[in-house]
Fold Small ribosomal subunit protein bS18.
Amino acid sequence: MERKKYSKRYCKYTEAKIEFIDYKDIDMLKHSLSERYKIMPRRLTGNTKKWQERVEVAIKRARHMALIPYVIDHKKVVENPFKL
């Protein structure tokens, strides 16, 4: 079988030279969340290990502050739960 060739993914945070990920900046965190608002893995987002750990901490803090939902109902998937 022939393997699929994927393009090289780059860390968006390293390229932008961001020094800190703020948990209140939801637009930046949405890049690392799936449509069900789960944290996407590094192999899909292209984040480096350092930035993936920082993103995870920021998302967990945002969930604790109720800025991002923990669980989304599977039967009622909302396109954007931030605009309820």
Helices lie at 12-15, 26-29, 42-45, 49-64. The two ends are 47 Å apart (CA to CA).
